[in-house]
Structures are given as C-alpha cells and as structure tokens.
C-alpha cells in the first residue's frame, strides 16, 4: 500500500491545507508574535506613548518576588489538582470497571461534569463552600473548623483546587476506564492465582500497565491546571484573598487587564508559552516511546 | 499432590442460563484429565470454577480432602495456563515466573533456584531478562508453563493452552506438556476442543456436551465403546459413519434390504426398532460385492499419503472409508464389508448406545 497521497495538481494540496494554516496563523502565530513584540515594549498608563525597552520587562519580572510567589502558588495548585483529579478518577474508574448493575448509567453520570463550563463549576462550588450559605461550610463549622475562604488563603486554595479537580475528574475517568478495560482479564486472573491479593494486584499489575495512560494524563492535567482553570479561579476567588490563589495565567490577566501593565503581562505570556512548548515536547517524546513496556 | 473431586457441580448465570448442569467426576492423584467438547459445552466454565475464577452455583469441588468452593484462587494451591498465556507484559520472563513465589514470601535464594530450574527444564534460560513482547508464541507458552511449575502446585489447570500456536508447534508442545506432566507427576486438568489433543494427552478423558458429561473413561475405552452417539461422532478423525438401520432379532440389523451382522448382544429382543449403525472409517473393508456388504457410491477422494479417505454415499447417506493408498478403486461403487465386532448401535432419540 502506498501510504503517501499523490496529487495530480500541485496547487491542490496547498489549497487543502490553506484553511488550517490560515487559522493557525491568524489565531495562534499572529497573537503569539504580538505578545513577543509587546513584551519588549512599555506603554504608559493612558496608552499615549510606547517605548521599546528590550528585556526590561523580563528583568523586572525575574527580580520581582511577587512573580516567584505566583509561580509557587501555581506549582502548588497544579500539583494538588493533578494529584487529586487523577487519584479520584482512578478510584472511580477501578470501581466502574467491575461488573456491577447499572454500570452504563453510572459511567455516563460520571462524565457529565466535563460538560460544565469552568465558571459555572466555580459558581456551583461557591454555593456549597460559601461561608454563610454553603452546606459544606456549615458542616465544617459544626465540626469546629472556621471555614472562610474569603479571608483565609489556604481555604481559598482548597476551594479552587476542589472545583478545578472536580471538573477534570470526568476526563481522567474516561481515559483510566479505557486503560483498565484494555488490560486483558486473564492477566488479572493469572495474578489472582499467583497469590496476589486485590491491593497487591493493583500496585504490581494494574498500575504499571496503566502507566502510559497515567503519564499522558499527568501532562494533560498539568496543562489544564496551568492554563484552563482561569474561569474557575476568576469566578470563585478572583485570585484572592491577597493573591493566595493567583496562578501565572491569572496574573497575566490581573497585571495586563486590571493593572494596565501590558508589557509585563506580555512577557509573562511569553514565558507561559515556553512552558507549554516544553510540556508538549516531553509528552510527545515519552508517549512515542511508550512508558514502561 | 492431590486428587480433584467434583460432585454435582452446577453453574447458573444471572438470567437463568445453565452453563454446567450437574457434573461429577474424580481426577486421581497425579493423573492427566482432559475435558473435551465443542465450544459452549461448559468445559472452560468448569475449569474456571475449579480455579476459583467463577463462583460455583451448586455442588462441591474438592482438591485433596478440602472443599474449595469458598476458597480464593490464591489459596487453592493450583496453577493455571491460559489460552492467551496471560503473561505480565511489564515484567521480564524471570519476574513473570518469580511473581507467584514472591507473593507467597518465598526466600529469595529459593525463588532464584526454582526459576532457574524451570527455565532449564523449559529451555527458556537465554530469555530470562526479556519481556514477553520479545518472545515467540512457543516461547511465551513455555514461560506460561514455567510460571505454573515454579510454584509446585497440587494441581495444574490448562485452558486451551495450545490453540494460539501454529499446527507444527502445537504437536511439539503437546508432547512436551505430556512429558513434563509425567516427570512432575502433578494432577492436571486440561481443557480443549481438539479431540486429537484430548486423545493423545489424557489418562482420563471427560467428554462434555451442553453442560453435561457424556462419558468418562480412558481414551481407548471412549474410542472403542462410546456410550453415546455424540461421543462416537466427536472422537476419532475422520469421524464415525452413521447409517440408519432397523434392528432384527437375529443379531443383525437391516440397512435397506441388506442384513448386516453386528456385535453380539446388541439390541436383544427389540426387533423392528430403528437404530443408527455406527462404523469407523477404518473399520470398513473393501470386499467383493456379496450379501451383507454395503455399497458406497464414490464422490471424491482425499489423499493422506499412506492412506486415502474415500468419501461417498451409502443409500444416500454420506459415509467415509479409510483404505491404504491404491488398495481400492477411486471411482464407481465400492462394496464394503462390516466387521461385526467393530459396529456400534445407537438409539436415534436418546443417542444412547444399545
């Protein structure tokens, strides 16, 4: 079989590629180039004058302790979201993988949260965790915990981690379930006969065989936590209190849109872009090599 | 080592489907028992119940003196070889074999000794560090066997272990399994749908059909004296011929207008009863046309080298005869003589032997 398509007309392949290339150029490369250009400029607060300052915006960023604090917040947030959404999803997938009555309905219900918009997810959780209205907050108070995410940075962080993880669990669940179903049943049975109890089977057989799925999901979830949780954070805490839940992406928005520092904000965007490129490269490299076996 | 005893074992699935309908037999200590039958006859389900991978709906399974119905697979002291080998893909051959021993907390030195011994017996020593993916089908099969033998279990269970191999390798592995079982002396239960495998491997053969045991015995017994028409048709290749006949009162049957003498004692005072006359293709002899011979209108011939299979029709019923190559004409009509001692009579309704 000839795998390469052969076109009679030389212009045809270019014409077929043109829409995709146009979209990529207009919606990705152009704004990216704009961001890079902007990151070398400083604009005054009223947008009347613009000055080319080379790397000053970057130097400013890297000497700003506030930026490192946000970076640390992002790392904590991403790690918490990734660990939580992966572990809960894996637990649910292992449960759903067993032959139980109504498994199909159960699985469908687990997929629903993925269809909820980030801001809506944020609002849902706000209602549950609101210190004065929320049912969870009331329960916590009864347990003697003074739950107040409006004033307590840790509480606010827990709140955004919960909401963000909850949204991602569905996605991870789907992949884990597919991964589990791809493990031959006889391998698990062989392990059972080989004297491995369920817990040991999970650690020595199931988890290693899931490792390609897990690795893929770790990268996807880090990217999600970095870049796609903006809506949730904005709706729930707006980055507060006292920037306790301000992630790198949120800071781009806060500094640029609210703070009016377009140059600094653009420089942050460029750094984020580099992070995404790095993560994607890692993912491609390892996925192609197939982790573990 | 231990015997395995099944008493009225049943399997009923949700929704009332009965896969196994009251099976009882005993596998003597150290013997090789083969469960054979067409697909869907319940033989694999039965094996999986012995292994503990399926719950037992009724009856009891004993390994040695112990009833194992409620015992986990891990605690039944059995080892199983699966059709698709079920090797752990992320572990080396060595770790695959060592896994069961490690789970049981066997000392490291002993694990090493046992794994190396098994690898030596099975001829997989050069591959101990490889992953299963890097092995051929036959090598994977050996590793799967190795995983079973390192544990030194009381019972080996085989679930169609050779069906993923090509024909030549299958014959070779069949011989090796038999040799291994003989030398280790471990009680073995082997499931297959291949009657040649069943005949060659077994000390005790259990033929199953539709969730029930049709007959139990040595391969020779079952081949010589099949208790039902099903067993008669299932064992032996080429399959037995079945010709409609009517019982007479003089130790013979009528096939059409012809009187054919049958084995003594068959029938007995039930003249006029319609029966099926079973004769194996190798038990028919080409003879001169005479009263009592059966005429075979030849349709085609299959060459097997030393012998030929001549296919044709006797009174319109498909039949086959096996003859030495060149010993008979290959077209026209053959007269076939029937050795009375080699005949089998079955009731058409129940399929029972008369």
UniProtKB/TrEMBL annotation, chain A:
One Gene Ontology cellular component annotation held by this UniProt entry: plasma membrane
ABC transmembrane type-1 domain: residues covered: 71-283
InterPro entries: MetI-like, MetI-like_sf, UgpAE/MalFG_permease
Pfam families xref list: BPD_transp_1
Gene3D superfamilies for the chain: MetI-like (1.10.3720.10)
Cell compartment(s), UniProt: Cell inner membrane; Cell membrane
Record's bilayer topology term: Multi-pass membrane protein
GO biological process, one term: transmembrane transport
Keyword Cell inner membrane carried by entry: yes
Swiss-Prot/TrEMBL keywords: Cell inner membrane, Cell membrane, Membrane, Transmembrane, Transmembrane helix, Transport
Keyword Transmembrane helix: yes
Residue spans crossing the bilayer: 12-32, 71-96, 108-128, 173-193, 205-227, 266-287
Family named by the database record: Belongs to the binding-protein-dependent transport system permease family.
Assembly and interaction partners: The complex is composed of two ATP-binding proteins (UgpC), two transmembrane proteins (UgpA and UgpE) and a solute-binding protein (UgpB).
Biological role: Part of the ABC transporter complex UgpBAEC involved in sn-glycerol-3-phosphate (G3P) import. Probably responsible for the translocation of the substrate across the membrane.
Name of the molecule in the record: sn-glycerol-3-phosphate transport system permease protein UgpA
Name of encoding gene: ugpA
TrEMBL record, chain B:
Keywords annotated in UniProt: ATP-binding, Cell inner membrane, Cell membrane, Membrane, Nucleotide-binding, Sugar transport, Translocase, Transport
Keyword Translocase: yes
GO process terms (BP): carbohydrate transport; glycerol-3-phosphate transmembrane transport; glycerophosphodiester transmembrane transport
GO cellular component: ATP-binding cassette (ABC) transporter complex, substrate-binding subunit-containing
A Pfam family matched in the record: OB_MalK
Classification via PANTHER family: MALTODEXTRIN IMPORT ATP-BINDING PROTEIN MSMX, SN-GLYCEROL-3-PHOSPHATE IMPORT ATP-BINDING PROTEIN UGPC
Protein name: sn-glycerol-3-phosphate import ATP-binding protein UgpC
Organism: Enterovirga aerilata
Phylogenetic lineage: Bacteria, Pseudomonadati, Pseudomonadota, Alphaproteobacteria, Hyphomicrobiales
């Amino acid at each position: 079989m000839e795998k390469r398509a052969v076109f009679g007309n030389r212009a045809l392949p270019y014409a077929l590629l043109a829409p995709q290339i146009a979209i990529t150029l207009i919606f990705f490369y152009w704004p990216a180039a704009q961001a890079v250009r902007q990151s070398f400029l400083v604009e005054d607060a009223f947008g009347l004058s613009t000055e080319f300052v080379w790397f000053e915006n970057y130097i400013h960023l890297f000497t700003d302790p506030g930026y490192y604090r946000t970076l640390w917040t992002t790392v904590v947030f991403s790690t918490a979201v990734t660990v939580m959404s992966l572990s809960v999803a894996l637990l649910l997938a292992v449960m759903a993988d067993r032959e139980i009555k109504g498994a199909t309905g159960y699985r469908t219900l687990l997929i629903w949260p993925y269809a909820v918009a980030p801001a809506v997810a944020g609002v849902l959780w706000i209602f549950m965790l609101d210190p004065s209205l929320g049912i969870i907050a009331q329960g916590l108070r009864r347990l003697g915990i003074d739950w107040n995410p409006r004033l307590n940075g840790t509480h606010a962080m827990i709140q955004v981690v919960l909401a963000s993880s909850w949204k991602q669990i569905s996605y991870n669940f789907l992949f884990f379930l597919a991964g589990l179903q791809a493990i031959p049943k006889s391998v698990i049975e062989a392990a059972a006969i080989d004297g491995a109890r369920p817990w040991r089977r999970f650690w020595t057989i199931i988890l290693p065989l899931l490792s390609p799925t897990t690795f893929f999901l770790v990268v996807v979830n880090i990217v999600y936590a970095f870049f796609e949780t903006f809506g949730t954070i904005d709706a729930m805490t707006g980055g507060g209190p006292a920037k306790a839940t301000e992630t790198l992406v949120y800071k781009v928005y806060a500094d640029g849109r609210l703070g009016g520092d377009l140059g600094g904000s653009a420089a942050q965007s460029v750094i984020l872009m580099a992070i995404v490129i790095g993560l994607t490269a890692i993912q491609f490299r390892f996925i192609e090599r197939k982790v573990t076996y | 080592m231990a015997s395995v005893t099944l008493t009225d074992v049943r399997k009923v699935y949700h929704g009332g489907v009965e896969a196994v309908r009251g099976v009882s037999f005993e596998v003597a200590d150290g013997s090789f028992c083969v469960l054979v039958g067409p697909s869907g006859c319940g033989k694999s389900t039965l094996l999986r119940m012995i292994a503990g991978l399926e719950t037992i709906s009724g009856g009891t399974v004993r390994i040695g003196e112990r009833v194992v119905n409620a015992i986990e697979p891990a605690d039944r002291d059995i080892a199983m070889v699966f059709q698709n080998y079920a090797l752990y893909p992320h572990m080396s051959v060595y770790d695959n074999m060592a896994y069961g021993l490690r789970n049981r907390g066997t000392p490291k030195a002993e694990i090493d000794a046992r794994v190396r011994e098994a690898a030596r017996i099975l001829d997989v020593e050069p591959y101990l560090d490889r992953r299963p993916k890097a092995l051929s089908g036959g090598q994977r099969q050996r590793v799967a066997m190795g995983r079973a033998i390192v544990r030194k279990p009381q019972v080996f269970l085989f679930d169609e272990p050779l069906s993923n191999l090509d024909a030549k390798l299958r014959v070779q592995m069949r011989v090796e399994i038999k040799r291994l079982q003989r030398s280790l002396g471990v009680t073995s239960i082997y499931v297959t749908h291949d009657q040649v495998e069943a005949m060659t491997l077994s000390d005790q053969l259990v033929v199953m059909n539709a969730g029930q045991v049709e007959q139990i015995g040595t391969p020779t017994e079952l081949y010589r004296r099949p208790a039902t028409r099903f067993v008669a048709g299932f064992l032996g290749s080429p399959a037995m011929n079945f010709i409609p006949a009517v019982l007479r009162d003089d130790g013979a049957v009528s096939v059409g207008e012809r009187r054919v003498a049958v084995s003594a004692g068959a029938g007995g005072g039930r003249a006029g009863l319609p029966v099926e006359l079973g004769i194996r293709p190798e038990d028919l002899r080409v003879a001169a046309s005479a009263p009592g011979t059966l005429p075979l209108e030849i349709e085609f011939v299959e060459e097997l080298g030393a012998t030929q299979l001549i296919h044709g029709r006797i009174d319109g019923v498909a039949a086959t005869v096996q003859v030495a190559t060149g010993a008979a004409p290959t077209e026209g009509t053959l007269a076939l003589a029937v050795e009375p001692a080699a005949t089998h009579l079955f009731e058409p309704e129940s399929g029972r032997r008369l």
